[in-house]
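Notes taken during the Thursday session

The instructor put the following on the board and asked us to keep it in front of us for the whole hour. The protein is EamA domain-containing protein. We were told not to look anything up and to reason only from what is written here. First, the residues (373 in total):
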Amino acid sequence: MHGEESRAGYEAETFFGPPAPAPSKGEREPLVAVQVHRYGASAPAYSNGYHRNGSAAHTPFRKALDAPAGTATNWLGVLLAFLSGAFFTLSSAAVKALRAMDPMELLLVRGLLQVAVMLAAALWRGAPLLGNKGFRLLLQLQGLVGGLTLVLLFYSFRRLPLGDATTIIFSSPVVVLVLSFVFLKEPCGFFRTLIVCTLVTGVVLIAKPPFIFHGDAQHYDVAGYGCAVAATVFTALNMVVMRKCKDVHFSVVVLHLSLWTVALALGLLLSVGHHRSLWALLRHTPLDWAMAVVVSVLGLSGQVLVACALGHEGAGKVAVTRSLDIVLAFVLQAFAFGEVPDWVSATGAALVLLCVLGMGLENQVLTLASILP
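Then, after some discussion, the predicted structure tokens were revealed:
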């Protein structure tokens, strides 16, 4: 391991020249990774965690997207990321297919299952159930944001074509880019601006707002597309807030998210649900309950797999790999639900997929551009 790090540092010095002196230990937070997954970084990161100009190789948003040590692709991480996206897509398809149950009934079942599993995991690990001191308020914030994200996801998958909803929601990594520019003043050059503009174009082509496409406003699902766009923003916020809770055991983080999910699903079920009564849960058939359990298991498996994927591969490649499941969503939409997308939606989905791929491969694109004449 030390030999690999020394060789990486030597090669960097040979190509770029010797690095500037790094600040003292008390003035910085040392980084573990030899190279940092770059989102707008102006210079390569050396093994001491600093750029050639001596500036820190990370910001709060970039820390959430750091890759593990090494630059070679970890194909196990890529496989786990693809499987996690597939599980999420299959879970979303099950939510859409199970019309006999209210979306909040399904979310309530999933939340209760997650509470049971994560509570057992936290007790087995001996983790404090209320969270570490200094993180308890932040833990509740991430639980609320995560619970609202799941509520919006379930409503959007029930109301919209599966491919449309999946494409809009999977554009969340680009929303992180926008948030980092607006709130943290991270640089946003020509390449990132092009990515954002292309993404907005793709989402508009998918959503087809009537005031642009002159469609039938009476049959336009404003609530469905509104939930999908809001879910995209909340997904990006949830990723950042969960990164802030990195010192809390993951079982405790997911446990609090699940508790908030149960509370929100229960409140919405009793206030705006189809039956507005918990007794309606007893009227469902065994097949409905079996499908509800399948939805819960698929969703929980997707969360576990994406956590495992991030342990093997950087978040950039994980996000890019998961975005490939947009294709799976459109295949399911066409063959399972008989909703063949038109060329406008297909074009929009292709643009969004291109944006997510371009953002994940930003390092390679910028490196290639720098060596071209």
